[in-house]
Specification:
single chain; about 260 residues; mainly alpha; two-stranded antiparallel sheet; two-stranded antiparallel ribbon; 4 strands; about 5% strand
């Protein structure tokens, strides 16, 4: 589409809004955190690793602390119903297995500094928190649907209806949501929208593919696995929620920020 044919793309941007955006998403050197733009992503990596070490200690030496973690650092329907809404964010720093932590920290190591370099540390915070919220919200809603499906199985007619709509009433029930994958995938979605033709290597695809192809395959695979209860230990719906926020943020805020800062 020709930008000249769309006056909305070239419409003047109010100065006061531009000033506010630049202050909030500022990435100029004198506005960065001490140590450069990579300070914040590595700080988050340290928090995640500390949380993993604490969970290991609680599991091996202080079992009474497991209840503390479950109440305040794990997102679940029970915690939300009891008013602990902050677990929608604190759960993004919680990991219980080394493999889970390793994958997420590798993704954060690759994408975090890139996001802060392009958009600034404040935008990194927005992407992390927003993607975590939508990730857990999607996981909780899927959990709610599955709870309704289990209740409906007591009536044969209702069970048949659920099977027709959702494919399988035994589809994954994400009773608890943890990990930084939602936030990392939100950043990955932003990256794919920003550089869709850039080649990336994603498992299980054995060769580099354009970013838009990689994220499309990942999103379709996540949706298929969620509906058909494949790999039930993975939060497929949460991953979709995180990616949705990253893509929406880029098209509503990120692209305009890059253009106004002369980076697009």
């Amino acid at each position: 589409m020709d930008p000249k044919a769309s006056p909305g793309l070239n419409a003047p941007f109010p100065r006061h809004l531009l000033h506010t955006q630049r202050r909030f998403y500022n990435s100029r050197p004198h506005r960065q955190l001490p140590g450069g733009p990579n300070t914040l992503p590595f700080t988050f990596m340290a928090i995640c690793c500390t949380g993993y070490a604490f969970s290991l200690y609680a599991h091996d030496s202080a079992p009474h602390l497991l209840r503390l973690i479950d109440d305040h650092a794990v997102c679940s329907l029970q915690n939300i119903r009891e008013g602990r809404y902050y677990t929608l964010v604190t759960s993004s720093f919680t990991h219980f297995t080394l493999v889970h932590l390793g994958f997420n920290m590798y993704g954060l190591y690759m994408l975090g500094p890139l996001m802060t370099s392009f958009f600034g540390p404040s935008a990194f915070l927005v992407l992390w928190i927003g993607s975590s919220l939508t990730c857990d919200a999607a996981a909780l809603y899927w959990d709610y649907l599955n709870q309704q499906a289990r209740q409906a199985r007591s009536q044969a007619r209702a069970v048949r209806g659920v099977r027709q709509v959702w494919g399988s009433p035994e589809a994954m029930v994400e009773t608890k949501s943890i990990g930084a994958s939602g936030s990392v995938l939100g950043m990955f979605a932003t990256f794919c929208c920003m550089m869709p033709k850039n080649r990336v290597l994603m498992m299980p695809i054995p060769v580099p593919v354009p970013a838009w192809v990689g994220i499309s395959v990942f999103a379709i695979g996540s949706a298929y696995c969620a509906v058909n209860a494949l790999f039930p230990y993975i939060g497929h719906m949460g991953h979709l929620g995180g990616m949705a926020f990253g893509a929406a943020w880029y098209f509503t805020q990120g692209r305009r920020i890059l253009r106004k800062l002369g980076r697009f």
